[in-house]
């Protein structure tokens, strides 16, 4: 189809996925971008142009649609190997775990874990992870995790569980795919300024107002909205993705956090019980004296 290196990016309609698409197309890549609506497909096709962008309409939880997207990509590649697969699509459903509906938890894991692996399995042969390889060097898999994949915060338990699982899945894949020369790199953003924080303002925490967690959950919601709107831009993450795809020997994990010491180093160095109490105090979750 083109001599440009090609990369599949899921969840490109807004936020980090959109920024990744902007960065990669500006650097000469052709992006196959995963969208879920016709409106997004048309909008992004007009924005990036057919020479740089091919929309793929699928939801990561729809196995048939994922498989068809992989077949369409294979047809357009015409035997050329993908340079990369960026698993960016994801979702967050905040709630206290004690009361969160189990179906919501299942859906969280379906989107952020099972769906990610389904996409990897479908596109892996196009990256060179196959006994019958295409033309060109093997590509790379970039999985979008989070600092929540290491540090779990209250009311983000299901999300943190999904990202912890994605971290483990990525480690196993990286070791398994050495045989094909396909690398796996994990991106771990902290709070990033994306439209997800606008959604946080409308999150339904009211269903927990009658529980002990009500006031604290509202505090988290207020903090998330304020923090998110003044967080680093998604271009910080897209730069990390570009590094993961192009650096000769990228690290297995690339963190993108506003303050490396406070947002990454200290939470991992503090004893777990001390960190528990510090977080509980900040969230108003300490028991009455």
Structure description:
The longest helix is centred in the middle third of the chain and has 26 residues, at 102-127. The chain has ten helices and seven strands. The N and C termini lie far apart (68 Å). The chain has one domain (6-283): Rossmann fold, CATH 3.40.50.720. It has helices at 15-26, 38-48, 63-77, 102-127, 157-176, 196-201, 214-229, 235-246, 260-269, 272-283; strands at 6-9, 30-35, 53-57, 84-87, 140-144, 183-189, 253-256. With 289 residues, the chain is an alpha/beta fold.
Task: State the strand order across the main sheet.
Answer: 3-2-1-4-5-6-7
What portion of the residues fall into strands of 2 or more residues? 5-15%
Q: Report the CATH C-level class.
A: Alpha Beta
Sketch the topology as an H/E string, one letter per element: EHEHEHEHEHEHHHEHH
- Measured distance between first and last alpha carbons: 68 Å
Number of β-strand runs: 7
CATH topology: Rossmann fold
By helix and strand content, what is the structural category?
A: alpha/beta
Largest sheet, in brief, is: 7 strands, parallel
CATH architecture: 3-Layer(aba) Sandwich
| Contiguous uncertain segments of 5+ residues | none
CATH superfamily: NAD(P)-binding Rossmann-like Domain
Number of helices: 10
